[in-house]
Amino acid sequence: MSPAPPLVLTVAGSDSGGGAGIQADLKTMLALGVHGMSVVTAVTAQNSRGVQGAWELPEEAVRAQYRAVVDDIGVQAVKTGMLSSARLVETVAELLAGTDAPVVVDPVGVSKHGDSLLAASALDSVRTRLLPTATVATPNLDEVAQLTDVHVVYEADMRVAAEAILSYGPRWALIKGGHLPTGPDEAVDLLTDGTEEHWLRAPRYDNRHTHGTGCTLASAIAAGLARGLAVPEAVRQAKEYVTGAVAAGFPLGAGIGPVDHGWRHRT
Fold first, then answer.
1. Closest by Cα among 245, 178, 247 to 207
2. From the candidates 80, 213, 216, 243, which is the catalytic residue?
3. Are 221 and 207 within 8 A, CB to CB?
């Protein structure tokens, strides 16, 4: 009998197309050698062309799933994704505040296809309740603008964005610069706690099939933290994994396909 691997919990929405959300999180966790568990916050009807519908689960269902996992099995890290309303954000923030484990907050605002996944009324709850629970917050540039009104145009602006995110209380901010026009050959992210700075650079691949990138990165960071890595090393390894997954992203349906969570097993 083998000992249990590190335990990671994702609190996020379901993507019926399998490219993002809970499905991407669990695939990432399996690929990186940890045991993934889930709290489903919403069910979406979603495919390669976008989100056709979304149904939020009741607060009591989210709370019951969380308590069932944490009270019996335990966790070494938690990752949050789609929390579509202020009520759910506040419920999850309360649960996280009582859990002794590192937390990766992916403040999901808009899907890859441009569909809104977060009510405007929930933004203040994300700022004041959810971000303070985060060991690492992982906003992309659109989410930075949504949360802070900082619009990143140049690489140097990422420092300003990080300062704005850190002002809400996470220990570390990872500003994802995948949409930054820094040149055709480079995707750059900034990780900082306000004192240390880590610039993470990787090739920018000409591949439109990138659905699930943000979910995958946050889950990979959580997997690293559960394995006992320090934040900078967990983020570095997660960036390496996601870069390979983006390079191997494949077409699915008529629209945007997913990154390949199993790319290491296919090379």
1. 247
2. 213
3. no
